[in-house]
Specification:
By secondary structure, the chain is mainly alpha-helical. Helices cover 53% and strands 7% of the residues. The protein has one domain: Glycosyltransferase (Alpha/alpha barrel). Strand 4 and strand 5 form a beta hairpin.
Length: 354
């Protein structure tokens, strides 16, 4: 993967040593800092509350996870301290997590990342409880009983188990993730490479596919080639990445419904796809040079959607499944929604070397 440096000049250009340079307006370090500052400025947690499921919202967990990884890459101990203080409140204030659904168990990715960055054992204990609890009562086929076959879960389940592996080195977590994601791939990936949102939701929703792309990239960045699921998962990832390359707009963005040119350009999915391609290039999984061009173009375009306050615009609101396309086309376009703030941080991290 190209090394990302900073200088004034044409943004996104590479020299003969394959180093890529950004000006200040496009610098992943500068932009990631603004997005992190926005997260830390929010006095309250974004919460997930339904009748049966309660906890810190997955979008906040994903943003905090990205911010902790970002601060660790920059060796920013002050920001890591602030993040640790913010999320230690989840433990000290006994904030409820029902731990009975993918959307609240995924919170574990955040304390596990904070453990990796700080060594705080309380964060490790918190994160592993959510990862292991997901398999406390597995189904007969070895899948978690939280399985629901929405494509979002490829990230929600997969990233949590991968983070548990990173924190412990125990292969059981990768085996769980690989088996689970493999089942989702077989059920929901279509012949062209993209994924339906879920059963009875035959649409290529942007962020839903973004969760898939990012989840596959996270798993394949750790899964050993000798794992029995590796070949099929790599094939699924490559099919998807090649499909996305075909659907990228000329300005570098992807759309709310990926295959609909009348759909609006959406930032969270674009950041997730760029992140997934960046990881694939860095790990040697994507060998076509067009992929590096694609994710660099995506980043350059995305920076135009980010304000000086670090808030990202044109983020699709949280979206359930539907059986008609207009539902997706009519979804609200939010500014500062953590669904979009989070993958900007992941993408910035990948451009900085992770």
């Amino acid at each position: 993967m190209a090394v990302i440096l900073f200088r004034c000049g044409q943004p996104g250009t590479a020299d003969r040593s394959n180093k890529v340079y950004w000006d200040e307006a496009h610098s992943p370090a500068v932009i990631g800092g603004k997005v992190t500052a926005d997260l830390l400025s929010r006095p309250d947690f974004m919460m997930y509350r339904t009748e049966k499921v309660k906890g810190i919202h997955y979008a906040e967990a994903c943003a905090g996870f990205g911010a902790a990884r970002f601060a660790g890459l920059l060796k920013d101990s002050l920001t890591l301290e602030k993040l640790s203080e913010r999320y230690a409140r989840v433990i000290t204030d006994s904030i409820l997590n029902t731990a009975n659904h993918v959307d609240v168990n995924v919170y574990g990715i955040l304390p596990l990342e904070l453990y990796k960055q700080t060594g705080d054992e309380e964060f490790l204990k918190q994160g592993l409880a959510l990862a292991d609890g997901q398999w406390a009562n597995p189904l007969a086929d070895g899948l978690t009983d939280q399985t629901r076959f929405w494509i979002d879960d490829i990230w929600m389940i997969g990233s949590l188990q991968v983070q548990a592996f990173r924190a412990t080195g125990k292969g059981v977590y990768l085996d769980r993730a690989a088996r689970e994601i493999g089942a989702y791939v077989r059920k929901l990936q279509q012949p062209g490479g993209l994924f339906h949102h879920g059963e009875n939701a035959p649409f290529f929703w942007g962020r839903g596919n973004g969760w898939v792309a990012a989840g596959l990239a996270e798993l394949l960045s750790e899964l050993p080639a000798e794992n029995p699921h590796y070949s099929s998962l790599l094939a699924a990832y490559l099919r998807m990445m090649n499909a996305l390359l075909r659907y990228q707009a000329k300005d570098g963005m992807w759309r709310q419904l990926i295959d609909r040119e009348d759909a609006w350009k959406e930032t969270s999915s674009t950041a997730m796809f760029g992140y997934a391609m960046s990881i694939g290039v860095s790990k040697g999984l994507l060998k076509n040079p067009e992929f590096q061009k694609a994710y660099q173009k995506a980043w350059l375009s995305l920076t135009g959607y980010i304000g000086s306050d670090g808030k990202v615009k044109d983020v699709c609101a949280g979206t359930g499944k539907a059986d008609h396309a207009q539902f997706y086309l009519d979804r609200p376009r939010n500014t500062g929604d953590l669904h979009g703030q989070a993958p900007i941080l992941w993408f910035a991290c990948s451009l900085l070397g992770r």
